[in-house]
């Protein structure tokens, strides 16, 4: 029996492009929301061409991140297209958009006007710099957001240039997550009060919010954190080390107790003597020496041997996995983190499974990203009651 979906009955219009706001829609769709992906009739979403192309004409990125959404075409700048859009708004709970601020208003489709049609409408607005401020009208992508928000400054070796902090799309994904959280909170308010609101997110804000204590530390002490490679300023040892066969591992010592256990595993319990490296402050003062001891220890063992030693001492550690390692990992398999499906257009696919894991109302996979306009006729018929002749007239006009 199919388990109930937590977002069942929630209707979402996704008119955004690429990744940030649409990813919020993907999260909602994974958990049962009806999400209509609305694209320009001729241009479509550029996400369809971003990444590895497949035999169906859309990329793997599209097939993964547009999953569980229905796809229709509609030209919002066309008078008849805008009229259809307003009718869809009347039946929707959420609108997702990531145009430059002022674009919807220029088209006569700003949130205030749309709430005259549907007062409960929640509008997620993702842009480079947010809806206010001196940079509000400027373009930007995740790469720019990482720099502006302070993340890229911290990524890299101390004597090297700033580097990409993992995925080049990290700020997009984070903004989608924050966006989904904002939508959920706003829906609860709308249910209680009957009034919708805007969820306003700048891409850079999504990464800035996650930079632990750098803001209060600077305000309090003037400390500017610099690039430290795999190190962090507040604890030692806490980084990456290479084993004898060339594999890399992460070891995390976030307290004096954990370091004592690591010192025992290393066969150097004397490091915890009061005049050695007993405290975090002592280890920070002797950072290079401490890291060097761990490096020498790790280099003398295989990753398996290191793992056995750390596990026995209850020291947090883990392999630094490539995607190939992940596909072979027993824990990923046991948790079903990789969703294997067969798509009618692209064949066998392996996709990241939905997060979070809900025990009573889990996410479900219905289909991968659909073809452009695949559901236009069905949506116009089911949602608005338009007949075949009406739909053909819209198609001839260029509105769909």
Account of the protein in words:
The protein has helices at residues 20-30, 60-65, 79-90, 103-106, 111-117, 142-148, 170-193, 203-208, 214-221, 256-265, 280-285, 287-299, 303-313, 323-328, 330-334, 376-384, 388-397; strands at 11-14, 34-39, 70-73, 94-97, 122-127, 198-202, 238-242, 248-252, 317-319, 338-343, 347-352. The strands form 3 sheets. It has a 6-stranded parallel β-sheet with strand order 3-2-1-4-5-6, sandwiched between helices. A 3-stranded antiparallel β-sheet has the order 7-8-9, with helices on one face. 34% of the residues are buried. With 400 residues, the protein is of the alpha/beta class. Strand 2, helix 2 and strand 3 form a beta-alpha-beta unit. It has a domain at 11-209 and 356-397: Crotonobetainyl-coa:carnitine coa-transferase, domain 1 (Rossmann fold, 3-Layer(aba) Sandwich), CATH 3.40.50. The longest helix has 24 residues, at 170-193. Keywords: Transferase. GO terms for molecular function: transferase activity.
Strand content: 5-15%
Spatial strand arrangement across the major sheet = 3-2-1-4-5-6
Radius of gyration: 25 Å
Mean pLDDT reading: 97
In CATH, the architecture of the domain at 11-209 and 356-397 is 3-Layer(aba) Sandwich
Ends distance: 37 Å
Could you give me the name of the CATH homologous superfamily of the domain at 11-209 and 356-397?
Answer: Crotonobetainyl-coa:carnitine coa-transferase, domain 1
Give the H and E element order: EHEHEHEHHEHHEHHEEHHHHEHHEEHH
**How would a crystallographer describe the biggest sheet?**
6 strands, parallel
* Count of alpha and pi helical runs: 17
What is the fold named in CATH at topology level of the domain at 11-209 and 356-397?
Answer: Rossmann fold
The helicity comes to 25-40%
Which class best fits the helix and strand makeup?
alpha/beta
CATH domain class name of the domain at 11-209 and 356-397:
Alpha Beta
* Principal-axes shape call: elongated
> Based on DSSP secondary structure assignment, what is the total number of beta strands?
11
Low-confidence stretches: none
